[in-house]
Amino acid sequence: MANKPQWDLIAEAFVNHYYSVFDTDRSQLATLYRDVSMLTFEGTACMGASAITQKLVSLPFQKVRHHVVTCDAQPVLPESLNGVLVFVNGDLTVDDGAQAIKFAQVFHLLPDRNSPGLFWVYNDLFRLNYG
Amino acid sequence: MANKPQWDLIAEAFVNHYYSVFDTDRSQLATLYRDVSMLTFEGTACMGASAITQKLVSLPFQKVRHHVVTCDAQPVLPESLNGVLVFVNGDLTVDDGAQAIKFAQVFHLLPDRNSPGLFWVYNDLFRLNYG
């Protein structure tokens, strides 16, 4: 762990938190987005914490469980913004389905200037990968 | 087409060009990266046009063909940089293999200040998704 770049640690902590909230009560994800945040979910774009949360809450399943297989991260220009680009590949299961579905998701995280150590989502792009 | 945001058009043009070059002569991809560019390929990180091209050229196949299934794009902060975040999901076949392999790739593109309309790759993250 000691040799991991800081952005890898930020990405892993964020991703663990994000999917934990998603799989428990996804209405609570609103706090991780802002008015300028963007989500492109399976090709459908929406903007702002409220619209994004509404989109996520309206997805047609009751239970969901994300399993992260890989989580890659890189720093994003400009350095002054301290952004982190996160690329997740994993599996998800919905409503006790036996078959996991592969997904890939991209987050561009920016630090919360009022809460050191916390990050919010500026860009979010999600795709299912049917097998 | 007329209603597509500009970043979608930029993303599609870039992606078509990138994979066309990749599948024809991937040593020529060097022109699309710079010294500060980053590639994380299947979890292995390298930096700079030279190291990135060396990594791509050394991949253990002679022929490769990328087929783009989805290409999503969003603008990236700060607006002054005019960056574009691109998220590609697709299939690739290598060396006349009958079985296509799914892949997902993320590009963060920045405009070439000396060549209006051209973009270079700042961030590049690539993962295969075995079925």
From TrEMBL, chains A, B:
PROSITE patterns: NTF2_DOMAIN
Domain (NTF2): residue spans on this chain: 10-128
Superkingdom, taxonomy of origin: Eukaryota
Main location: cytoplasm
One GO location term (cellular component): nuclear envelope
InterPro entries to which the protein is assigned, alphabetical: NTF2, NTF2-like_dom_sf, NTF2_dom, Nuclear_transport_factor_2_euk
Compartments it resides in: Cytoplasm; Nucleus
GO biological process: mRNA transport; protein import into nucleus
Keywords, in A-Z order: Cytoplasm, Nucleus, Protein transport, Transport
Keyword Cytoplasm: yes
CDD domains named among the record's database cross-references: NTF2 (cd00780)
Keyword 4Fe-4S: no
Function as written in the Swiss-Prot or TrEMBL entry: Has a role in nuclear-cytoplasmic transport of proteins and mRNAs.
Protein name listed in UniProt: NTF2-related export protein
Organism annotation: Cyanidiococcus yangmingshanensis
